Amino acid sequence: MIQGMKDVDILAKFDGRGRAEFLLGGLESSDANKITAFGFEFGYDLHATEIPSKSSMRLIYLRNDSPTARQRAWQTHARLAAGGPLLPMWMAPGAEPGTVRPISAFEIAQKRRGIEAYETNGVRGLAVFCGLLSLGCFVLVGVLRGKSLAGLAVLAILGITLAVAAVLVPRLLRHWYERDRRLVDLYDRQRSGWVAPPPPPPPAPPEGADRYPPEGLE
I need a surface site. Which of 7, 71, 137, 191 has the fewest CB within 10 A? Predict the structure, then answer.
């Protein structure tokens, strides 16, 4: 069951209207994943994240009118009416083939927010920013040539580090984005019944099965 007034306040905005907005300030920003997870259960997608000020964040959700999302919202209402949990746990594929690991709705919500931020902002601006800082460091090295060798060495190392970051960070972020996108898509398909959940891990071998020769044949 839902516990706490704060959860009730969040759910009150996911009441079937076409748009829901949350203006979070200060410590309330830690509730962003919970809000996103709640919204998904009631058929809402995160549309945009805005930063109106340094200390606040606005989350905008739009109602998803697809049959899949509407059915999920109906099932959520029915589950809550029957006294069930709002947020189900899910078994995601593990790192090793044939293994699974538990994953919470909050973790999936965090990945949804990261995907939305990447698709909205990209990483080109970050790469350009690091590249410009790197160039500035090397310009300073040229201007200050003949000054303190220690200071020049620090500037050169910083310039090289920023140049490497300008090249590698976009690739890393792209890799994380694609990985999270695959996981979220798999989660959505499984929640919609399109594919079977990942298989359980294989049972442990019986005690003594790893002995050679097998017990009883010695």
Answer: 71
